[in-house]
Design brief:
This protein is of the alpha/beta class. The protein has five helices and nine strands, in the order βββαββαβαββαβα. Strands 3, 4, 5, 6 and 9 form a five-stranded parallel beta sheet that branches. Strand 5, helix 2 and strand 6 form a beta-alpha-beta unit. Helix 1 runs parallel beside helix 2 and helix 2 packs across helix 4. The longest helix is centred in the last third of the chain and has 21 residues.
């Protein structure tokens, strides 16, 4: 048998039915209140029956005022717990684990659709014409964002997600803190 089709036990004890994973991609299929709706449930139901051993959601935001694009699911508290649980059930019914990818876009949030100034570690704009200069976060604001990630992860656990992935790529907020090009801070952050 090909190793791709063999189960894989992760260090946390979760056993994936095989080693084929659907990577995160932003679906932008949340309802008007940023909750997962039937479109996401149907999509993940279909993907879970496609032979994957793990499904990772795309771009679940931790702050509804800072979206990557319209249609992102947002988890700030447990107000959408029932909808999140239905989303999880859509993959679990086929025996496939699901992880939520948690994200904050930082300076890459969409100011045109939200009407606000993006935030970032430092006031360094994107190198795209017309991009606004983000507002540098204060220490307490950074701690608030960390708490938002924690809260979202706790809600995901309660909803039945098998894990979370912190989005630390593609120039989003976590990456902005790690890059000397976008993090010009001289404090502990």
């Amino acid at each position: 048998m090909n190793a791709l089709h063999q189960p894989l036990r992760l260090p946390n004890g979760l056993v994936l039915p095989n080693r084929i994973m659907k990577a995160a991609m932003s679906e932008a299929l949340a309802d008007g209140h940023h909750a997962p709706d039937d479109r996401l449930v149907r999509l993940y139901d279909r993907w879970s029956r496609g032979g994957y051993g793990l499904l990772i959601t795309g771009n679940v935001m931790v702050d509804r005022t800072q979206l990557g694009e319209p249609g992102n699911v947002v988890i700030e508290d447990d107000r959408d717990l029932a909808a999140l649980s239905r989303w999880v059930k859509s993959t679990h019914d086929a025996g496939v684990p699901i992880w939520a990818q948690l994200n904050h876009p930082g300076r890459q949030s969409n100011p045109l659709s939200l009407g606000h100034t993006p935030v970032a570690p430092s006031a360094v704009p994107l190198s795209l014409p017309g991009s606004p200069t983000p507002r540098a976060l204060t220490g307490p604001q950074i701690e608030n964002i960390i708490d938002r990630f924690v809260t979202a992860a706790q809600v995901c656990e309660t909803a039945g997600f098998d894990g979370v992935q912190i989005h630390g790529a593609h120039g989003y907020l976590v990456t902005q803190f790690l890059s000397p090009l976008t993090n010009l801070r001289e404090d502990g952050w």
